[in-house]
TrEMBL record:
<feature type="domain" description="Transposase putative helix-turn-helix">
    <location>
        <begin position="1"/>
        <end position="43"/>
    </location>
</feature>
<dbReference type="InterPro" id="IPR021027">
    <property type="entry name" value="Transposase_put_HTH"/>
</dbReference>
<protein>
    <submittedName>
        <fullName>Helix-turn-helix domain-containing protein</fullName>
    </submittedName>
</protein>
<dbReference type="Pfam" id="PF12323">
    <property type="entry name" value="HTH_OrfB_IS605"/>
</dbReference>
Length: 209
């Protein structure tokens, strides 16, 4: 069973500034990759650029801009490029099916609100200070952030996301292998009343199997 848990983050001013910059830099990466694809497609050769091509450029980008792009998790940047790739896959799928395609758009800083870490322990760490009574999550480039954990997290943590909603920040923890919790039997029987007056010979209150 898979389940996602969403918790409010208790940030210091410095941590909030760092997370804001993280979103800004990931947004810049997303828009830059989108522009590269637009330019390639507008070229007479109609060159196609895919996720693998752009992911291979990350090392050079991070080396060229160590204070910004080089500061954040490599895996989270790959997740941002996959996000763009999925947008293009959906675009071409709609084109092929004859629907109105809707070309992928550039994202404003205010509309880019989520950064995904595909694997716990790679650029982030859930419950990073297990020896403390307070739960924290660590993000590369930000540090250990306090979490308002109002319920226990069960299963194996797979992905961790940081999300901004208005003026508040949340961490979303996706887990698999969450044990199912079946309800206790009540002894009652549940049925469905399918009323179908259009059926010949059936009244409006007739039960139809």
């Amino acid at each position: 069973m898979i389940r996602a848990y969403k918790f409010l983050l208790r940030l210091t001013k410095r941590q909030q500034a760092s997370l804001t910059q993280m979103l800004r830099d990931h947004c810049s990466l997303y828009n830059g990759a989108l522009q590269e694809r637009r330019d390639a497609y507008a070229h007479p050769s109609k060159t196609k650029i895919r996720y693998g091509d752009q992911s291979a450029q990350l090392k050079e980008i991070r080396s060229f801009d160590p204070e910004r792009q080089g500061r954040w998790s490599f895996s989270s940047q790959q997740a941002t490029l996959r996000r763009l790739d999925k947008a293009f896959q959906a675009f071409f799928r709609r084109v092929k099916s004859g629907h109105k395609p809707g070309y992928p758009r550039f994202r404003g800083v205010g509309r880019f609100d989520t950064v995904v870490f595909p694997k716990d322990g790679d650029g982030c760490r859930w419950d990073s200070t297990p020896q403390d009574a307070v739960t924290r999550v660590r993000f590369q480039g930000v540090g250990h952030v306090r979490v308002h954990r109002h319920r226990p997290v069960k299963g194996r943590v797979k992905t961790v996301s940081v999300k901004r909603e208005g003026g508040r920040w949340f961490v979303v923890v996706a887990c698999d292998q969450v044990p199912a919790q079946p309800l206790e039997p009540t002894g009652r029987v549940t049925g469905i009343d399918m009323r179908c007056p259009e059926v010949s010979g059936q009244g409006p209150n007739t039960m139809v199997p």
